[in-house]
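Postdoc handover notes: sequence design on the structure in folder B. Input tokens:
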């Protein structure tokens, strides 16, 4: 009987921690984007202060952002169809530019870091112009900053 209770407690703990780690490990696209935003602001702060370590670390966090959960990728692919490669291309381009920012920051090359930062922001905004509202709609996210639901 005691063993049974112990086993039950162990299993409950395993289930609860499993559920917690599943939510922690799998942010949705909107949460990923909020992280990108924070790191983009962090890069700007680093550039304003010539703090290259701060720039490099934030740029690497952007480069290594979590993957989009597979269920969400599927919904996006269904919505975008043949445009899916273009959507992925924006993601790749921002990824590559964030690595260039990190490399420039490591070399303490301010001009190159700034140029790459500006290109990266253009990449963020180009994807938003093309897809943000449309994709947010299929993922059930907010559609605009002035959406009263926010
Ligand atoms: C491949 C396309 C793509 C790229 C590249 C991209 N975004 Fe996004 N972003 C989206 C989509 C789609 C949404 C809407 C997600 C949702 O609402 O579910 C979004 C939403 C956001 C939001 C709003 C989150 C909210 O609270 O509603 C912010 C902030 C954001 N992105 C920042 C960034 C930054 C910063 C970058 C560049 C470092 C970036 N994004 C690059 C597609 C992209």
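Designed sequence:
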């Amino acid at each position: 009987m005691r063993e049974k209770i112990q086993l039950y407690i162990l299993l409950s703990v395993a289930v609860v921690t499993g559920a917690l780690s599943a939510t922690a490990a799998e942010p949705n696209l909107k949460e990923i984007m909020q992280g990108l935003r924070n790191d983009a602001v962090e890069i700007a702060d680093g550039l304003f202060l010539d703090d290259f370590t701060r720039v490099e670390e934030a740029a690497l966090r952007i480069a290594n952002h979590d993957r989009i959960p597979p269920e969400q990728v599927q919904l996006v692919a269904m919505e975008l169809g043949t445009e899916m490669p273009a959507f992925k291309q924006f993601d790749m381009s921002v990824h590559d530019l964030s690595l260039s920012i990190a490399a420039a920051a490591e070399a303490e090359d301010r001009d190159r870091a700034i140029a790459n930062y500006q290109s990266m922001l253009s990449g963020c905004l180009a994807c938003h112009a093309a897809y943000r509202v449309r994709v947010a709609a299929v993922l059930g996210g907010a559609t605009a900053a002035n959406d009263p639901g926010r």
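Context for whoever picks this up: The pocket of heme C is lined by residues 29-30, 33-34, 36-37, 40, 62, 87, 90-91, 94, 120, 123-124, 127-128, 131-132, 135-136, 139, 141-142 (CB under 6 Å). Don't rerun without checking with the PI first.
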